[in-house]
Amino acid sequence: MLTVTNLRKSFYHRPVLNDLNLQIAAGEIIALMGKNGVGKSTLLRILGRISTANSGEVKFAGKSLLKGDSENRRGILYLGHAPGMYPPLSAKENLGLFSRLYKSPTTEPGIEEVLEIVGLTIQADDPIRIYSQGMLQRLKLALAMLIDWKLLLFDEPFTGLDEQGRELVEKILRQWQSTNRTILLVTHDFEWSWQFCHRLVVINRGTIQYNFNIAETDINTARDQFRHLLV
Amino acid sequence: MLIHLLKKEFLVELRSKEISASMLTFGLAVILIFSFSINVSPAVFQKFAPGLYWIMVLFIADLGLHRMFSHEKEFDTFSMIISAPFDRGLIFLSKWLAGTAFLVIAELLITAPFFLFLQLDIPVQWGRLIGIIILGNAGIMAIGSIVSGLAMRAKMSEVLLPILLFPLVSPNIIACVKATTAIFDNQLFATWQTWFQLMVTFTVVFGLAGYLFFDHITEE
Predict the structure, then answer these.
(1) Is A158 helix (H, G, I), strand (E, B) or coil?
(2) What is the extent of the structural domain holding A139?
(3) What is the ipTM of this complex?
(4) What is the pTM of this model?
């Protein structure tokens, strides 16, 4: 579904991604891990076509993502650190707008339904500027439920969530897992990733250091190697 | 898609009122300062009123342009917008058209006090004056939307925006002043059509450039 070949990216002449190669098959859920500043979020932003790469190639569903037409991005949904929506608008208005911009138009009852699932019904008409971090994270999840994506790029899905919110994210992620959706997520939680994902990809020095296939790898070996890298 | 983006621009402005309120307040304050600080007869004032008017418009536009991408910056909404599967040039078109509309709306409320407080005669060719004002605004906002998009990711965008904008927009402002002066003097169109042509060319060139290159301008 997604092929990343020899991807390079530098900031102020400092290489962040250095000949990175990655392949993601349809239905795979992959956790992207590594120390702070190794380029996990940068990789996600390049795949979301927000950042440009210095060189390399990214193909999504056989089409070039970096050089191709805007339609080639169709099916990719990027959810970054920030809420990514308009602060003066309400949750309903934001969801309506972004579902149209991502070419997945929806109805008012459809929006109300996802807002109910994520527990934002009461605040649905309030401007999202007054939302807490956890509420904004839930709103992002509601958007992901509305849009018809093929590949979800999710940067730190549990940021700012309380226990209830975390359970909600896990529940929805499991629903997507059961329907063979493809997800690439950035997380720092090794134990959770090992239970939930198909693969655990560890980035170090701008390239992929470990690519653990969870079904075929011993957790203790992987944990030791991962922790050794973080020291 | 352009319709959705335009609707969004107007809805966001309707809720926040950041652009229109700041442009209107600043414009009215400038008119008050002009009327109290310049002590010449209305006949003399009529001569340099077009220059003052367009300087005021330029500063008002600059204020609006500062806020043009503020909502996209606050929650990194810009990343979500440019990641969506549509032509990024449409983002420029929506910003340009909405920015021009906000500027025209602000001027609708500012132009009458400008004539009233400065005791200016309403030009005979007032219809042409309105046309020149709208065209001039479109030209300012065309280059302004490009520069605002460029400056958006810069740390010192408040400083960068006027530094880039003012020199680039100068040909359009000069043409606006010359055309407005000619209209104030009730001159024939043939005497100022060169300035009109310059304004049209400027607006079309920067409008097209913005549409075509906005993708490259805004990428990280």
Answers:
(1) coil
(2) 82-148
(3) 0.86
(4) 0.88
With an 8 Å Cβ cutoff, are B71 and A127 in contact? no
Is the CB of B87 less than 8 angstroms away from the CB of A52?
A: no
Residues A128, B55 contacting (CB under 8 angstroms): no
Which residues span the domain enclosing B22?
A: 2-218
- The whole-angstrom distance between B86's CA and the closest CA on chain A is 5
State the Cα torsion B79-A74-A148-A77 to the nearest 10°. -30
Q: Do B83 and A81 touch (CB under 8 A)?
A: no
Q: Which residues of B56-68 are buried (b: 16+ CB within 10 A; e: fewer)?
A: bbbbbbbbbbbbb
Look at chain B and count its residues: 220
| Interface with chain A: mutation pick from B83, B91, B211, B219, highest number of A CBs within 10 Å | B83
The two three-digit tokens of residue B21, written as one number? 């309120």
d(CA A29, CA A44) in angstroms, rounded, equals 14
Q: Which two tokens stand for residue A201?
A: 């990809």
Domain boundary among A95, A114, A148: A148
Q: How far apart are CA A63 and CA A69, in angstroms?
A: 9
Q: Alpha helix locations (H) across chain A?
A: 40-47, 91-101, 108-117, 133-146, 163-178, 190-196, 219-230
Residue B8 amino acid letter: K
Q: Which of B77, B85, B87 sits opposite A85 (nearest CB)?
A: B77
- Residues A141 and A115: beta-carbon distance below 8 Å: no
Q: pLDDT tens digits for B41-67?
A: 777 788 888 998 999 999 999 988 888
Cβ neighbours of residue A162 under 8 Å, at least 6 residues apart? Answer: A134
Mind listing the pLDDT tens digit for each residue in A170-224? 889 888 988 888 999 999 888 889 888 989 999 988 888 888 888 888 888 888 8
Mark whether A11 and A68 lie in a shared domain. yes
The alpha helices in B152-220, defined as continuous H runs, are: 157-184, 189-218
Domain count, chain B: 1
In DSSP terms, A4 is beta-bridged to: A22, A58
Interface size, chain A vs chain B, as Cβ–Cβ contacts under 8 Å: 85
Please check whether residues A140 and A154 belong to one and the same domain: no
In this complex, is the C-beta atom of A101 within 8 Å of any C-beta atom belonging to chain B? yes
Nearest CA in chain B to A72: B85
- Helix, coil or strand: residue A66: coil
Residues A115 and A133 in one domain: yes
Q: How many CA atoms lie within 13 A of B166 on its CB side?
A: 9
